[in-house]
Design goal:
Length: about 350
């Protein structure tokens, strides 16, 4: 089901959306409904973006269904969504002209970063108000090698905490998830001796744990459980404990500033078109919070329908603008794109046909 997400508090004037170019309801465009599907991590930001855009463009309806990154990519491939939200970009083997039903036959997709956010390690452990975990300990918990909260490795990192003799319930995403891809990539880069699997959208079955659907499902399972731990976009980590990650001897919290730092030190995937901005994150940079997701808007280089292209350029253009990025930062706690990256994304959006 495609769900229309609206936040009544998100009210802006049309002038605020000037970056987006002509309003989509101008110029006689016949298409006035835009359909997107994908990353649940973008849910809070999309609520804000949709309401702001529709307020400034009263003849337009934007529907975004936060059904998960995998669902978004599948819908975009099938032409069931005109853009996808995804916490990972399409892989090289998934790209190529003729693979996307809503795009022109000779068109590839574009992966455009629009939402940068830390992934919080969340937990529910009565009597423990603060928790620090290093790379190997965190990986050992999620692989099932550390099974109890009073394990010596956890106790050593948290000497002041009263850790109970209680089994750990590690909660992961049940669905095809870009958040899982980024979290498992973090483990693979930082704790390769413990985490022996490659980054993946799906949770490795060998590691077990409790599964829950979507970001809200993981947060709910952790919040309502006892001795639980999981991972979720930081914007959704409410009323639950958030662990610090000890990386190279430095305890780091999942802040927007820390998320932005890692993107500055990473590079785009080599061999893509000039306007494709898929990133390969370097999570080993000292001082940067490593569990970070870069969420993308996936669009066509050229759409079959020129009116759809106009509407996509207008909406995604607003999202990537300084105003759109600040709106997401306010509502979801995400890290605004740097001015340099905003300019690159704008150039890519302007190229859409």
């Amino acid at each position: 089901m495609k769900t229309k997400l609206i936040s009544a508090a998100a009210l802006v004037t049309a002038s605020t959306l000037a970056f987006a170019g002509c309003a989509a309801n101008e110029g006689g465009a016949s298409t006035t409904t835009l359909t997107g599907k994908g990353a649940s991590s973008q849910k809070a930001a999309q609520e804000k973006w949709v309401a702001a855009f529709q307020t400034a463009n009263t003849g337009v309806t934007v529907n975004y269904a936060p059904d998960g990154s995998g669902a978004g990519r599948s819908a975009f491939i099938a032409g069931a969504a005109q853009f996808a939200g995804s916490d990972r970009a399409f892989k090289d083997e998934e790209m190529g002209a003729g693979k996307f039903a809503g795009c022109a036959a000779d068109s590839n997709a574009l992966n455009l970063p629009i939402y940068v956010s830390p992934i919080a390690v969340i937990y529910k452990l009565d009597g423990v108000d603060s928790l620090t975990l290093d790379e190997n300990t965190l990986a050992s918990i999620f692989t099932g090698k550390i099974k109890n909260w009073n394990d010596a490795a956890i106790a050593k990192l948290n000497p002041k905490a009263k850790l109970p003799d209680l089994a750990i319930t590690a909660v992961h995403r049940a669905d095809d998830s870009g958040t899982t891809n980024n979290f498992t990539d973090t483990m693979a880069q930082l704790a390769p001796s413990v985490w022996t699997e490659s980054a993946s959208d799906t949770w490795p079955s060998a590691f077990g744990g409790e599964a829950a659907n979507g970001t809200s499902g993981v947060v709910g399972a952790v919040t309502n459980g006892t001795g639980t731990i999981g991972y979720a976009d930081a914007s959704a980590a409410k009323n639950v404990g958030i662990a610090e990650l000890l990386v190279k001897g430095k305890a780091l919290k999942p802040t927007a500033e820390a998320a932005a730092a890692i993107l500055d030190d990473s590079k785009v995937v080599a061999g893509r078109g000039a306007n494709d901005l898929a990133y390969k994150l370097d999570r080993t940079t000292g001082g940067a919070y490593p569990a970070v997701l870069v969420s993308y808007a996936i669009v066509c280089e050229t759409y079959k329908d020129a009116n759809v292209a106009k509407l996509v350029k207008s909406y995604i253009g607003y999202i990537a603008s300084a105003d759109g990025q600040q709106a997401a930062a306010t509502s979801a706690g995400s890290a605004p794109l740097s001015a340099a990256l905003q300019a690159k994304v704008k150039t890519a959006i302007d190229s859409i046909k």
